[in-house]
Amino acid sequence: MNLLDPTVITFGIYLLAMLFIGWLGYRATTDLSDYILGGRSLGSFVTALSAGASDMSGWLLMGLPGAVYLSGLSEAWIAIGLTIGAYLNWRLVAARLRLYTERTNNALTLPDYLASRFEDGANVLRLVTTAVILVFFTIYCASGVVAGARLFESMFGLPYQTALWVGALCTIAYVFIGGFLAVSWTDTIQASLMITALILAPVVAYFAVTGELQAGQSLTEMIGAQKLDLMHNASVIGVVSLMAWGLGYFGQPHILVRFMAADSVASIPRARRIGMTWMVLCLGGAVAVGLVGIPYFAVHTQQAAGVQANAETVFIEIARQLFNPWIAGLLLAAILAAVMSTLSCQLLVCSSALTEDIYRVFLRKNATQRELVWVGRAMVFAIAVVAIVIAGNPNSRVLSMVSYAWAGFGAAFGPVILLSLFWRGMTRNGALAGIVVGAVTVVVWKQGGWLGLYEIVPGFVLGALAVVLVSKLGKQPSPAMLQRHDAVDAEMARLQA
């Protein structure tokens, strides 16, 4: 590794900037609310971009462009589904969840919200929700650590085990130091980096290709009609499965917590407009990178070895070959940004669940705010170590579960969150049934692989049915629960008037 290489220097500057932001977050953190929710102080811009960055991992810059490069626009259905799902999440959930969590004992975490919403004195709901979050997110974190390690490995020629620790420690450092504020501020910078990269790369590649076309040649011909056909090799079940990814948004704790942290309900509409604009441009840019990569590497066959070996490197290869090394370093840092932004918020959500919902509730009810902040930091480190151990074997069977962790969260929490916000008749046992049925259905359906249907669809449907049936058959909500729900309804109606 050449330390004077422009790409290495750019990476180094980027990492130092993230650590500096972590230090600023540390200075602004005084209590647990600050550490795990930023003191509910995020403006619309930071709320929007941090929600987007925490959602979009390395898949945005590597997975999606690679899939489009190989198969064409038929892979874009997932991007369409995600866009619709994200919009509905902003529209239906964001403002109402921000308001509801404030009125339920100022809930700081998802388990805290559900326990307070349904007056769960026994804390069964809190424990089950925390357990689901920890299982899925520890695995998620491991996958993020592997993605970061692979990037450092390919960029700098580091051995995998060394790259594993370097990549992980870079993220752990600013989360450990600065908590939610550091994560949100770094997410905002990382989101800006990602959108810059995904606009620049396809535009420059497009002009590079069109400048080298022979007389009579066209880009559409070089790409091919099949790869420009949205329905090529697509089945109804296949399209439904890809579109259904959007359902997952309603149950992702690391996205929902961004809504809870907004400074007010009034800032949500502006945040939605900013967030959706960012998302559409990023997803469009990722699809464009994959499409323009087809004619670019068809013309530059001698430079196509990397892409032919692994289609997911199409963005990396375009950045390396078409840009000045300093600019390329910045663009490639966007991949690291995508990985770090997702990993950082996952670590923080796990830490929050352990600190607020286990340590404070069951072990130290009278713990000071300073103590809770340091316990939160310790939990970040502990979860990260577990994730690194799992990631030590990149071929570990556990990592294969990552493919349906999104579905697991979406099916376990999606129906529960939606119905808890809109249905006054929902009960604690209904919420418990929905979480368990949704999560179990995803796992069982994945093993069976029935109909080739994405497991989130049956998981979401059966989870919702379980909530409704168990709530209807059991004891009705208390007058206080009904009164609180009606108050939230009235406040939302007033705000939307």
Automatic annotation (TrEMBL):
Catalyzes the sodium-dependent uptake of extracellular L-proline. Signal peptide: none annotated. It comes from Acidovorax ebreus (strain TPSY). It catalyses: L-proline(in) + Na(+)(in) = L-proline(out) + Na(+)(out). Belongs to the sodium:solute symporter (SSF) (TC 2.A.21) family. One of its GO terms (molecular function) is L-proline transmembrane transporter activity. It is found in: Cell inner membrane; Cell membrane. NCBIfam families: Na_Pro_sym, sss. This is Sodium/proline symporter. Keywords: Amino-acid transport, Cell inner membrane, Cell membrane, Ion transport, Membrane, Sodium, Sodium transport, Symport, Transmembrane, Transmembrane helix, Transport. It comes from the Bacteria.
